[in-house]
Amino acid sequence: MGMITGALVGGVVGFGAINVMALMIRNSGNPHDLVTFSSDVDVFATADAWAGANGYRLIRNDAQHRVYQKGHNFLTAPMFLEVTQNGRDYAFKSYVQLNGLLIKGEMALSGDSFFAKLPRSMAKKAQNQLFSSLGQPGLA
After folding, report:
1. In the predicted structure, residue 139 carries a pLDDT above the cut 70
2. Residue 71: how many CB atoms within 10 A of its CB?
3. What gap in Å lies between CA 93 and CA 71, rounded to an integer?
């Protein structure tokens, strides 16, 4: 009986801790990085090829907006890249999401916080490769 009680207490404490971290991330004031630029090349085709080569999957797609995700919130926070087109203008929104089940928090890839440091670093490295291929400066 003691092991079951300990497991339940540990589960409740862990569940509470992940929700507190998600709340802290949501209130951090830095939910995403934003890169904007104009281009005449097919940026969506370049982003699609990059996503396939880097383990990102297309989870949302319409004429002017695509969302790519890597990870499933199992052992590591999912990494996102949203690409929006308006004529020749493009906006890239990059972030990591911590899902505490009750609370979700989004956090920019740049910054020096210890929260979700590994997935932010992995996503920044991969996304900077995409930005470089498009002739754009990467995330700091």
Report:
1. yes
2. 19
3. 17
